[in-house]
Amino acid sequence: MLQPVEMAASPVARPAGRFPRWPLAVLPWLFPAAALVVALLDTGVSGSDIFLYGFYFTVDIVLPGTLVHRALRGSRGNLPEDLGLGAATGLLLMVGGWALTAAADKHVLLPWWPALIVVPFLAVPRLHRHWKVGDPRPLPLRWSWIVAAGLVLVVASQYPGWTTTPLPPVGGVIYQDLFYHLALVHEMTRAMPFQVPQMLGEPLRYHYLSDADIAAAGLITKIDPAVVLLRLWIVPIAGTAILALAALTRELSGKWWAGALGGVTAIVGLPLLLGAAVSPIGGSPISGTSPSQTYGLPLLTLLVTLAVDVLRGRPLRWAWILIFPLGLACAGAKSSALPPYVAGLLAALVILTFRHRRPLLPGFALLGLTVAAMALGFRLFAGGGAGTLGFQPLALLHWADPYRLTLGRYDTVDGARSLPLGVEQVGTAGWLFLVGLLTWWVVAQAPRLLGLVGLITRKTRGEPALWLLNGMIVAGAGAAYLLWHPAASQVYFFSGAVPFGTVAVAVVLARLARGWRPVLAGALAGGAWALLAPRMPPPVHDRLGSWLVTLAEPLIRTAIVVVAVAAIVVTLRRSWQGLLPALLAAALGGGLATGAQVQVRAALAEPAPVDRSGKLILTEELIAAKWLDEHAGRDDVVATNVHCQPIDWVSGCDARAFWVAGVGGRRTVIESWGYTDEVVARHGVNGLGFAQQPAPDILRYLLNQRVFTDGKADDLARLRSLYGVRWLFADDRAFGGVSPHLSELATPRFSSGPVTIFELP
C-alpha cells in the first residue's frame, strides 16, 4: 500500500555537526582542480584562459545562481550542494540574459547581466542572509572525497579526446560535429533570428542553447570560442550535474553516502561489462562530441528536484517561476530531454491520484507548465533531426555488433519498414537470439535499471519520486528501442535519463539497507568483479550461436559468482536480509568501477592510430579560416568552394565539412548542407544517407561553384547581388579547384597554403 503523501513529504534526515576546518574542507577539491589545470595546460590551453574562464564561471554563473536559488528555495545547509544547485540555476539565468541581449542585438550589455542579479543581494538588507549557508548541516569530509574523486574521473574521461582534438588553427582530424557546433557558437553571437551558418538564409531550428552558453562565455571573457568549446566548458558543466544529482539523491535517501555514491555514479558510471566482448548501447550520459547532451543534464536535474518537492507535497512558493523557463531551457538544450521526464511525471501523478482518489492540483499544474514549455520548445528549436524520428521498433539494434553482423547484415537504415529487415525475416532461432541480446543489455544496464525494484518493495513503493525517476528511465529506454533515426539519435532519450535511473538505484539502496556494512561489502564485491572478470574475445565467425555464447558466458559466470557469494553470506548470517541491498550496491559499485577503469585506461593509453587522412584539414587552411574570423565583420557573408569531406571528393560528397563556418566564424552562401532540415528529411532517397544527398538548393550550389571554377564576372556579380557576399574563401584542394581568373575579379587579401581569401570591393 502506498504511504500517505504527508509521510513522504516529511523532511529527510540531514547530517549535523560542525563544518570541517578550512584546510581539511578544501583539500579534497584541490585534486580535481589540479588535474583539470594540468590536463588543460598539457593540451594547449594557456594559463590565462584557464584562470579567466574559472573566474567567469565562479562569478557570472555560480555566484548569481546560488544567491537566486537560496532566495527561492532556501539553503541546503552546506556549501557544495548549494553551489551545485546554484550553478544549475546560474546556467538558466545566463541563457536568459543571452536571449535578451540577442533579441535586442545588444550583446555588449551581456557582461553586466550577472551584476544586475548580484547587486540587489548587496543592496537589500533582507537579502544579505543568502550570502551564507543557512541552517548549517555540514556534510562529512568523506562526502567531499568521494565527489572530488568523481570529478577527477570526469577530467580523465575528457583528456583522451583533448589529446586527439587539436585547437585551431592547428590542423588535424576533428569530429565534424564539433565544427558544426563551433559555427553555431559564432551564430549565437549575432542577433535573432538565427540562420544555419552553412546555408545563408535557412532558418535555424535546432537545440542550440548549449552553443548559446558557450557563446556567452566567449562574449564575456573574450576567450576564443574554440578553446571554450573544445576544452574549458565540459568539465564545469558535468561537475555541476554531479553536485546537483548528489543533492537530489541525498534529499530522497536521507543519507550522505547515498548522495555521494549516486551523484558520482550517475555521471561517471558505465554499464556492467562483466567481461563482455562488446559494450552495450547507452554508455556515458556526458559526451565531449555532443555539447547539447551534456548541457541539458544540470538543467534537467534542477527541474526534477523541483518536481520532487511538488510530488512530496512541499510548497514551491516563489520557485514556481523557475518551472516554465527551466522546461523551455531543457527543450532548447536537447530535444530528447523532456519527453522521458514528462512520462515519468505523468506516471507519478497517476499513482498519487489513484492513491488519494483526487487529482493533485500542484502536480498537474507542474505537468501543464512542462508540456507547454515542451510544445513551445519544439516549435522554436526542433529541426530536421527531430523531424526525422520515426516509429520502427528495434531499429537501434543496427548499431550493436551482435545484431548488425548477423541478423542485420542486410538491413538498410532508412526507416521505410515497420521492422528492420533482419527482425522482419527472423525465425525461431533468431527470436531466441534477439531475446538473449535484449536480456544481456538489461543486465548490463543494471546500475541504471535496478531502481525498478523500488516500485514493488513495501518500504519504497510509496515514494512518489521513485515513480518519476523510474518512469524516466523506462520511457527513455522505450523511446530508444521503439523509434528510428538515421544517425541513432534516438539513443539520447535513454542517455539523458540514465543519471536519474542511477539516482533511483541509490535511493532504493539507501532505503532498504540496514547499516553500512552490506552496502560497502556489496559495492566492493561488485567493483572487484567488474575489474577482475575475464574478458571474452569477439567470436571468430559472425554466427548466431557464436555471438550467443559470447554474450551468455559472462552472464553465466557472473550468476555463478553471485549465487556462491550469496550462499556463503546466508550460511554465515543465517538470514536472507541484506542480500537485495548488497545486490544493488554491487550494481552501483560495478558500474562505478567500470567507468573508472575505462576512463583511467583511456587517459593513460596512447591513441590508437587510425587512417582518417581523407578528413585531414591542413594547418594552413585553418590559419586562413582564423584570419577570416579576425578580419571579417560580424555579419559579413562568405562564399567558399569547400563543401565535402574528403575535400577533394571524387566518387561521392559527404557534405559535413563545417570548418570554414566553424573556424572562420561567418555565415556562408553554401558550405556543407549535411545537417539541414531538408537534407536530413531526405535520408534514404536513392539509397543515399542524409550526408550524401545533393545540395538542397542546387541552383545556388552550381552558381557558387562556377564562381570558383570558371572565374567569370557575371557569376560573381550575381552571387554578390543575391547573397551580399563580401569574402571568397578559395581552397585549391577542393573539388574543381580555383580559377586563376578569380584574382582579376576580387582583391587577394590573405594566402596560406592552398587557401586564398579574396575581398570583394
Short description:
The protein contains 31 helices and 7 strands.
Describe what this molecule looks like in 3D.
The protein has 761 residues and is mainly alpha-helical. The chain has a domain of 146 residues. Helices cover 59% and strands 4% of the residues. The chain has 31 helices and seven strands. Strands 4-3-5-7-6 form a five-stranded mixed sheet, with helices on both faces. A two-stranded antiparallel sheet has the order 1-2. It starts with a helix and ends with a strand.
Topology:
Layout: H1 5-8, H2 22-42, H3 47-73, H4 79-104, H5 113-123, H6 141-164, H7 176-187, H8 209-221, H9 225-232, H10 234-253, H11 256-268, H12 291-311, H13 323-333, H14 338-356, H15 361-381, H16 384-387, E1 390-391, H17 401-404, H18 421-424, H19 428-444, H20 446-449, H21 464-482, E2 483-484, H22 491-512, H23 517-532, H24 544-573, H25 579-604, H26 619-631, E3 637-640, H27 659-664, E4 667-668, H28 677-681, H29 698-709, H30 713-723, E5 725-731, H31 742-745, E6 747-752, E7 755-759
Parallel strand pairs: 3-4, 3-5
Antiparallel strand pairs: 1-2, 5-7, 6-7
Helix pairs in contact: 2-6, 3-4, 3-5, 4-8, 4-10, 4-12, 6-10, 6-11, 6-25, 7-8, 7-9, 10-11, 10-12, 10-22, 11-22, 11-25, 12-13, 12-14, 12-22, 13-15, 14-15, 14-21, 19-24, 21-22, 22-25, 23-25, 29-30
